[in-house]
Amino acid sequence: MRALWLVRHGGGDAWAVRETPDPVPQAGEVRIRVHASGLNFSELMARQGLYPDAPKPPAVLGYEASGVIDAVGEGVDAARVGQRVVALAKFGAHAELLCVQAGQALPIPEQMPFEAAAALPLTYLTAYHMLFRAACLRPGESVLVHMAAGGVGTAVLQLCRTVERVTTFGTASSRKHGALRANGCTYPIDYHAVDYAQEVRRLSDGRGVDIVLDPLGGRDTVKGYKLLRPGGRIVVYGFANIQRGERRSLVHVLRQGLAIPRFSPLALMAANRGVIGVNVGHLWGQADLLEQEMAALIVLYNEGKIVPVIDVVLPLERAAEGYRRMETAQNVGKIIVTP
Questions:
Q1: Domain spanning 123-280: which CATH class is it, in words?
Q2: Helix (H, G, I), strand (E, B), or coil: what is residue 197?
């Protein structure tokens, strides 16, 4: 099979498509012939050696894929061969073939394109888990969404529309504001032109927001925390600020590390605020929970309440172009690659 390998830490030339032995499904596994898989910001950080969960290069990355089951391991119903599925994987999805536990491969509707299905497992699952499990979004609340035009951002905006009277504030460059509005954003904010925290306070008449979803880290986590109303929650799910440019800068990493806030339990209690961390990649031990949330997302898709926004679909050989679009904040929605 062909697979996209991260051959070393470095810049955009660190990726290579290589012939790789076909995996064989073990007991309890299915093998998927991949039709589409998603690119994610965490893989950019892994390329620079900034993502501790990633395997050391050379390695095949990729968390999510859709396709057709073409083989099963011992103990798996052979009738599953030929089934259209979507799967969340612990790396290895950027390949023509992928083996996962049978329970991690969920059937998808015939009408769902493989490209749309591949956009669900990490971005929509992260968004769903943050909103409905971690932050417990309620009707009438307000949410600040950073990087609102990206894969997770557009997923958050669409999922917020499934709850009554939710107000959303989304940060993105002005050229992406039309896309934000199309996905339900109440107040797009151009963070290049204004201080987003000041703008949120202005638009909310000084009240701030109930929920902040923070993929940025560092000083932005502090700014987000200060925007919370009493009873508010900030969900930290990334550290995008640590990445700058094509290659790792240790000086920049150190500077961002020093800006990481420390929260006192007594201060949280006094302020009636909550700080929550989410890393879906660390929930492998909660497979039942992830499967339930993925099943809920497929129901929402069938009901027409969510429609994954696809920025571009590229062949595997052009994955580096997709990462470059992501790195330079050119994408609106999810970037998909096809083997």
A1: alpha beta
A2: helix
